[in-house]
Amino acid sequence: MAVNPPLVVLLGATGFVGSAVLRELAGRPLRIRAVSRRPAPPVPAGARADIEVRAADLTGPGAVAEAVAGADVVIHTVLYSAGATTWRVEDGDTAAERVNVGLVRDLVEALRDARTADGSPVTVLWAGAASQAGPLDKEVLDGTETDRPKGEYDRQKLAAERLLLAADAEGVLRGAAIRLPTVFGYGPDSTARDKGVVTFMTRRALSGESITMWHDGTVRRDLLYVEDVARAFAAAVDHPDALAGRHWLLGTGRGEPLGEVFRTVAALVAERTGKPAVPVVSVPPPAHAEPGDFRSVTIDASAFSAATGWSAVTPLDEALARTVAFVVSGGEEALS
Question: Can you tell me the distance from the alpha carbon of 147 to that of 246, in angstroms, rounded to the nearest whole number?
Answer without folding.
Answer: 13
